[in-house]
Write a sequence for this structure.
């Protein structure tokens, strides 16, 4: 039994990875369906409030966890702003203006901006030729996808959506750097629940002051179905699966979701939403993801080299 346990754990880890890749890819398409009917920020705060309440109530009631400390709340507040107000909220809003696949692909660029942020502000990255090649490919691939979509949609609203998506990606990158440099001793699920709750309150204020919202009683069953899917699958099941896969699988394998879910989003958007999808867009997506892979690979290779040199 003991010899089979690690194998069984890995098997479940791969299942969790598949769930993460597919479900997070579908959430882009489902979110697009929702923002076509109600304001994006309103949908985001409803989703995050319900999902956050589920996490917090479960861990406080079932696991008997106490309220976070003042120090933990400060960390939670910063993370909620970066990861959920700006990253999630603005990326959801961007879907109102630009194709789903383009928004998902821009979101996948965050490892590239993390490298740049670390290099510019912390001087902690040694950029190699492989890293520069990855940065070049990543930006070139997005440029190809942008070129294919721009002539069909290029107007002020398209540029607004593009800006929202880029800011969302940069915010996720800053959040990633902050998380790496500021650890908090708190259950990750419980902490995420509080981040969602706090961000929901902030997004509520932003939604009600910047956009004409829809009365709760007037929201259609279709939108409630979208929100239900995003809460259950996008915020709870996929997040639990993501954390589980990170625990059970090597980091390099667990991170494959970053390369797969944009492709899932792009393909489903072409099939379900009838968004433009041709060979050039697919090539652009593959070039982008190849660039992201090269950047990640070069950083991990350099980290291993540093460890080996230190041991010698």
């Amino acid at each position: 039994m003991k010899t089979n346990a690690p194998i069984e754990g890995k098997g479940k880890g791969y299942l969790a990875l598949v769930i993460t890749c597919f479900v997070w890819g579908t959430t882009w398409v489902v979110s697009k369906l929702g923002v076509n009917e109600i304001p994006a920020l309103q949908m985001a705060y409803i989703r995050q409030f319900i999902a956050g309440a589920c996490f917090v109530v479960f861990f406080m009631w079932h696991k008997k966890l106490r309220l976070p400390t003042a120090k933990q709340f400060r960390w939670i507040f910063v993370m909620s702003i970066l990861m959920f107000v700006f990253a999630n909220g603005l990326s959801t809003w961007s879907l109102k203006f630009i194709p789903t696949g383009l928004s998902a692909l821009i979101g996948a660029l965050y490892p590239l901006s993390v490298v740049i942020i670390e290099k510019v502000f912390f001087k902690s990255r040694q950029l190699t030729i492989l890293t520069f090649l990855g940065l070049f490919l990543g930006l070139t691939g997005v440029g190809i996808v942008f070129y294919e979509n721009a002539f069909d949609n290029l107007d002020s609203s398209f540029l607004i959506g593009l800006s929202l998506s880029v800011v969302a990606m940069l915010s996720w990158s800053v959040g990633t750097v902050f998380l790496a440099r500021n650890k908090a001793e708190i259950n990750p699920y419980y902490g995420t629940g509080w981040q969602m709750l706090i961000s929901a309150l902030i997004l509520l204020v932003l939604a009600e002051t910047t956009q004409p919202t829809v009365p709760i009683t007037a929201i259609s069953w279709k939108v409630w179905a979208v929100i239900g899917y995003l809460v259950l699958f996008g915020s709870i099941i996929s997040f639990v699966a993501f954390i589980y896969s990170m625990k059970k699988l090597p980091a390099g394998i667990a991170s494959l979701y970053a390369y797969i879910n944009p492709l899932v989003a792009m393909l489903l958007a072409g099939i379900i939403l009838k968004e433009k999808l041709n060979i050039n867009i697919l090539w652009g997506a593959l070039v982008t993801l190849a660039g992201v892979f090269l950047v990640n690979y070069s950083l991990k290779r350099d980290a291993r080299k540093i460890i080996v040199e230190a041991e010698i």
